[in-house]
Amino acid sequence: MTAPMTAPLTVTLPTAADTQALGRRLGALLRAGDLLLLTGELGAGKTTLTQGLAEGLGVRGPITSPTFVIARVHPSLVAGPPLVHVDAYRLSGALDFDDLDLDASVEESVTVVEWGHGVAELLSEDYLEVELTGEDERVARFTAHGPRWVGSPDLEALRGLG
Q1: How far apart are CA 88 and CA 70, in angstroms?
Q2: Does 74 fall in a domain?
Q3: Across all residues in the chain, what is the average pLDDT?
Q4: Separation between Cα atoms, residue 130 and residue 142, nearest integer Å
Q5: Whole-number Å distance between alpha carbons of 2 and 64
Q6: Tell me: the pLDDT tens digits for 66-122?
Q7: Where are the beta strands (DSSP E) in the chain?
Q8: What is the mean pLDDT of residues 135-160?
Q9: Percentage of residues in the chain with pLDDT exceeding 90?
Q10: What CATH number has the domain bearing residue 100?
Q11: How many domains does the structure of the chain reveal?
Q12: Backbone torsions φ then ψ of 22, nearest 5 degrees
């Protein structure tokens, strides 16, 4: 596993609309093979951020939490990569996660895993972890892993939002 960047990027998000706007901005920077792990308490904004990511990627919606279906694939409407949206909350561990066979599609898709910390890192050495905290005003903390994200100008493009 590659060490994360030394200073995580932190962005303050006063409203849910700001969370979606950050997602749109990030979604426009994503490409096939990108893996994002979203962490945070229930209601912290993981699905809200993913809704913005989906808009930025130009994929078919609607984007809702895949808690009960575990994973949804949203095809691109603009000849880009599909979005694979996974919720690992109900999975009992790495073996259940491995049974989803996500490694078969991770190179062609943008994969977003809610509650993925501790299991989804196995999909790629390159991933961006986004921790969402707060209730009224949210904070997104980005931690980069692997050569795709550590020192990435794509990630640095988000720095001015916080």
Answers
A1: 7
A2: yes
A3: 83
A4: 5
A5: 31
A6: 666 667 789 999 999 999 988 876 655 554 555 555 555 667 889 998 877 777 777
A7: 9-13, 35-39, 71-74, 83-87, 110-114, 127-133, 138-145
A8: 86
A9: 49
A10: 3.40.50.300
A11: 1
A12: -60, -45
